[in-house]
Amino acid sequence: MTKKDYYNIVGVDKSASADEIKRAYRKLARKYHPDVNPDDKGAEAKFKELNEAFEVLGNQQKKAQYDQFGHAAFQQGQGGGGFQGFRGFGGGGGGGFSSFEDIFSGSGFDDIFSAFSGMRGEETRRSSAPGADLRYDITITLEEAHSGVAKKIQVPRFEKCGVCKGTGAKDGTAKETCDKCNGSGQVRQVRRSFLGQIVTVGMCGKCKGKGTIIKTPCSECSGNGRIKKTRTIDVEIPAGVDNDSHLRMAGEGEAGMNGAPSGDLYIVIHVKPHDILERYENDLYCKTTIGIGQAVLGDEIEIPTIRGKAKLKIPSGTQSHTVFKLSGQGMPDVHGRGKGDQLVKVVVEIPKTLNKKQRQLMEEYAVESRQSATVGKGFFDKMKEYF
What is the mean pLDDT of the chain? Predict the structure, then answer.
């Protein structure tokens, strides 16, 4: 009977690297493994054939002989050592895998396999899990964000029981080592199959993975080692914080289980909109209106700032929507790198109604303006030249 090509069985080209061959083998081994397909005899035969191919291609020396002589390299008298039948995984230095776990290891399926086999018992021992992180949202004013502020907040959280000091055992008693797992928190189960011995490790059901048993639990925490409390915490909010800034308070989250470290508390800061000022990065913006006389003749006006009021000089001939800068009147940088500016947009307000004297003066101004405009070319004259 003609033997199949080992490269075709594994699903790679003859030029494939050792890593590519191993990855291809792992993929097919997971698919056809008898433990995955207990009722499929065809899968078992396919798996044996696949293992035979990898016994050769997974060994650099045997692969070189196979590439040169084909299957004849492993017939009697060729010095190839031969494939001695299905021997589980690998064997004979063929580069195979010693167990089902080895097929998955390093392939991205480690955690999936461990979840079923219990090989990562320490990770599944929730009894010693770190405390949860907490979030607290706080709202402050723009003035408080400018100067910095201290706040007191009420945070409900799990804390270490003060009566038993977090042990969960009644005062005067102690935890005892679990006699089922001998304190490891894990139990092993061994079963045999035609593939050999399979060992699985799981969490101990008696102590729930803790490794210890509390026979007389603490009356305050009922053996949990933690109790729910509302704690008053002082929060120092630095100057310059912006909307949605985060402050991390290490260890101020919930207490961990079974002596594990506490979580962290994250303060999320929200800054209320200001009635006058708007913020962009570290600069502040506002808008004010002036009369037409102030714009034409110039003036000095008061501008509200985050710290009170400031004087702003309006030069004569100021146009509407001109922006002035008050240097250093913005927000402080939260990292201490100076301060921003305050930018003031000046809008010239045109009066909707005039009294008799005002109207007379404006008419006189309009006449004077039209006379002086005759010196140059008018708007429509310029438009004619353009077209």
Answer: 78
